[in-house]
């Protein structure tokens, strides 16, 4: 399984960027994106930024990853997904 991390750009030269997620920093490629700036949230797969994220989407991905970590550690992950409990997920129109 491949997971993308929502990372925040700390600095960039337009080709690479120093990004952070939690306590981790790493240099990634940003050549697939146009007009990236410090402070932007990006989705990173295999050390390449594949798309820009808005604040809410980045927050939801972080929450899901925190829930996955809790579950892997044998802890309850309900608090990370409380907004989903009792709601039937809706498929996007193109999948109905």
Automatic annotation (TrEMBL):
Query: What Pfam families has UniProt attached to this entry?
Result: HupF_HypC
Q: Which protein are we looking at?
A: Putative HupF protein
What phylogenetic lineage does the species belong to? Bacteria, Pseudomonadati, Pseudomonadota, Alphaproteobacteria, Hyphomicrobiales
| GO MF annotations, alphabetized | carbon dioxide binding; iron ion binding
What gene makes this protein?
hupF
Protein family according to the UniProt entry: Belongs to the HupF/HypC family.
Q: Which InterPro entries does this chain map to?
A: Hydrogenase_HupF/HypC
One GO term of the biological process aspect: protein maturation
The domain of life for this entry's organism is: Bacteria
């Amino acid at each position: 399984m491949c997971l993308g991390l929502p990372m925040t750009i700390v600095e960039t030269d337009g080709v690479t960027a120093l990004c952070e997620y939690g306590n981790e920093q790493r240099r990634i490629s940003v050549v697939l994106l146009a007009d990236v700036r410090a402070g932007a949230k990006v989705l990173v797969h295999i050390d390449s930024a594949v798309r820009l994220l808005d604040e809410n989407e980045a927050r939801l991905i972080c929450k899901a990853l925190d829930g996955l970590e809790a579950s892997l550690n044998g802890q309850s992950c309900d608090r990370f997904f409380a907004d989903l409990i009792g709601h039937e997920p809706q498929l996007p129109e193109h999948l109905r």
